Amino acid sequence: MNAASIKRFSSQNAIYIVLILLVVAIAVYDPTFIAITTLRDILVQSSTRAIIALGMAFILITGGTDLSAGRIVGITAVISASMLQMETYANRFFPDMGQINMIIPILLAIIVGLLIGLLNGFIVAKLNVPPFIATLGTMVAVYGLNSMYFDIDPNNSQPIGGLRSDFTNLGTGYIGSDGTYSIPYIVIIAIVVAAIVWVIFNKTQLGKNMYAIGGNIQAANVSGIRVSRNIMYIYMIAGALYGLAGVLEAARTGGATNNYGNMYELDAIAACVVGGVSTAGGIGTVPGVMAGVVIFSVINYGLTYVGIDPYWQLIVKGVIIVAAVAFDIRKYVAKK
Amino acid sequence: MANTPFILEMNHISKSFPGVKALDNVTLKLRPGTVHALMGENGAGKSTLMKCLFGIYTPDEGEIIIEGQKANITNSKDAINYGVSMIHQELHPVPHRNVMENLWLGRFPLKKFGPIRFIDEKKMLAETKAVLAELEMNMDPHTKVGDLSVSNVQSIEIAKAVSHRAKVIVMDEPTSSLTGNEVEQLFKIINKLRARGVAIIYISHKMEEILRISDDITIMRDGKLIGTWPSSEMTMDLIISRMVGRELKERFPERLNVPGDTLLKVENLTSTQGHSFKDVSFELKKGEILGVGGLVGSQRTELIEALFGLRGVASGKITINGKEVKIKSPVEAKKHKIALLTEERRVTGIFPVLSIKENTAIASLPRYRNSVGLLSDGKMRQDAEDNVKRFRTKTPTIDTPIKNLSGGNQQKVLLARWILTDPDILMLDEPTRGIDVGAKYEIYTFMTELAKQGKSIIMISSEMPELMGMSDRIMVMCEGRMTGIVDGKTATEEDIMRLAAQRG
């Protein structure tokens, strides 16, 4: 391995190298950071973010963007939570609702996410509104819709709490005997979702079409790809993933308000671009996105762990976003 | 200043990329007031050499000497300061701004008003007029550049170079999108530049042009210099043999195809757009190569794009194998086994960031589905590898992004993409534009092979020898109308030109 190939290897795998360096740096500062519990906490923190980021990756790779992601997480969290409260809880959203099967509200929330995604896709593909504007519109409108639902009597905009334990178990439960050597359900769900998304990206026509549309939309059309239809599928899948993430957020935190998910889209976009997804479209991988998500969790968790001021953490995050992309872009600019 | 007859010398330039020696000890010397043609097949190293001149690449070895002094060029601004300018093949003007602003973009003349600087509109206008007058370009400085023809945009680029006091101007395929008249116009401008002592590096694949306009010809092959000769001593055959390194007996392969029954019948096809094609009728036989000739504005491209479902058809009838069909989208065109290689390779052909493999497979994904509906990567790789071998595409691997390939090699990948869809009718729009001789011959060979297998080909071409050398019959269009169909073997260039100019 000569100098040139080392250089190439490091630029191709920059994201993973940054991740390792980050962990090493924190561990040098405080060796107790290296522990099973730390790893588990980071993975739990990463789970819902990963699902949102994967949804976002679909859209970024087609050359679009989705500002409504966070608000879709919010409305689906509220919908699922509103139907999954304990019967004994005092302030129930639906006071007369019985103990329904958990799967019904979960599916309902995912379908709501999917439909909002379909709406986004329709506005982008059929009305030819730029994705930034289209999803800016739905972002605002979905928040309005969510707040309206949240304000229904008798809830009247009270935070929804007292969720059923079978539901919260989804977000906090785990496989294994005790808290240390165990795998949380939520992590398993995220890994399964990532695996499915990987298959879609790499092994399906939809995935190939997605890269093609992002790579050159006109050439995609000439190649006989049904561009509008594929774009709508992509936004639908992304919406469904946000819906799932909303459900898991409610389950994990044991509640929901209309402000859930606020600005999550920006975290998702940041994780994607740090993970090597091109905002110009056509480029992005599942492992890259996952690494991008984990990097931010490591920063959040790790810097808090070693006691760094939260404001400083924001500055570090900002620098990493810009630095990662500036570094990554070197892969594509003409080499001297 | 050292005493030298050369205005620019690039001496012993070498440049390597991982795995390839792109330039190997190449020397190029330019005399002032001459047009120096730089020739070679795609991938011969012409662009790499120019990128070294403009500081986009740093040569590993060698030196650049401008007017006897060693030049150190690290970016395009340095190049301009040394008096070196480039007219690119694809122009990128600012379409919503006018001629004047495009000309002075980035270096507007300024006037001071106290501590504030304003753009000196008067001075800018005066200088624009002066430059345009000097080159005898008839243009209003206030016209929006977006409203100008390609030829006029190119003239602005040349005017820009002149306004920079350029001593060396590189022109990359300057005539690739010009009409005959516009080429004459360009040559007039080139002659003016030559008279002013400007040296021009002229990169082109068009031999007739080069033999006409150039003083010297430098030929490269596989990153190496083959030699420099005065144009007066060169012939087309000599150039070709030196470029490809073998004697090319024929410019076109022997055609063994036998046109059979009628496959496609087009009757009175009329566009939804008034200015486009009208009332076009023709037939295409099985195993036939039908050439389509005409000048710019003949609406040939519009016609075949309509046959592919990319443009609207107001009236008329399309029949394939005796059955009437309606084609409203490329998806439907593919179902009727039609393929289209578009004219604008970069705009509507390649997926720049995607690999050769993806670019090859994208139009035939269903054939890679396995029993559970997932795509088989192995089969895709196999097909991509096979096609790279079959077309002799020059690429490090099939995972290389297609944007890293030269134009001719990109075209081969696109051809492979469409062959994989197994079309009965293959429509090729200027299939060899901007492609070197070797690759051209390979593409011709493919076309004849396909025709021999019974596939039908429609080929739009603006190159007369190509039209006549490759077509069984030639359909000629003028301003949206079909003005005649002539036999490829007996037609003369004059016949075709007359039909191409025959207004309705």
Automatic annotation (TrEMBL), chain A:
- The source's domain of life comes to Bacteria
Q: What InterPro entries does the record tag this protein with? A: ABC_transp_permease
Q: What is its main location?
A: membrane
Coiled-coil stretches noted in the UniProt entry, renumbered to this chain: none
Q: List UniProt keywords, sorted A-Z.
A: Cell membrane, Membrane, Transmembrane, Transmembrane helix
What is the recorded membrane topology of this protein?
Multi-pass membrane protein
Q: Which residues cross the membrane?
A: 14-36, 48-65, 102-125, 131-150, 183-201, 231-248, 269-299, 311-329
Q: Where in the cell is it found?
A: Cell membrane
The reply to whether Transmembrane helix figures as a keyword in the UniProt entry is: yes
Name it. Answer: Methyl-galactoside transport system permease protein
Origin organism of this chain? Paenibacillus phyllosphaerae
From TrEMBL, chain B:
Q: According to its UniProt record, where is this protein located?
A: Cell inner membrane; Cell membrane
**UniProt KW Repeat keyword:** yes
Which InterPro entries does the record cross-reference, listed alphabetically? Answer: AAA+_ATPase, ABC_carbohydrate_import_ATPase, ABC_transporter-like_ATP-bd, ABC_transporter-like_CS, P-loop_NTPase
**Keyword Membrane assigned:** yes
Which CDD domains has this protein been placed in? ABC_Carb_Monos_I, ABC_Carb_Monos_II
- What's the Enzyme Commission number for this chain? 7.5.2.11
For this protein, the record's Pfam families field holds: ABC_tran (PF00005)
Annotated ranges, domain ABC transporter: 8-247, 258-504
Q: Which PROSITE patterns match?
A: ABC_TRANSPORTER_1 (PS00211), ABC_TRANSPORTER_2 (PS50893)
Q: Name one GO molecular function term.
A: ATP binding
UniProt cross-references to PANTHER family, sorted A to Z:
CARBOHYDRATE TRANSPORT ATP-BINDING PROTEIN MG119-RELATED, GALACTOSE_METHYL GALACTOSIDE IMPORT ATP-BINDING PROTEIN MGLA
Protein purpose: Part of an ABC transporter complex involved in carbohydrate import. Could be involved in ribose, galactose and/or methyl galactoside import. Responsible for energy coupling to the transport system.
This protein is called Ribose/galactose/methyl galactoside import ATP-binding protein
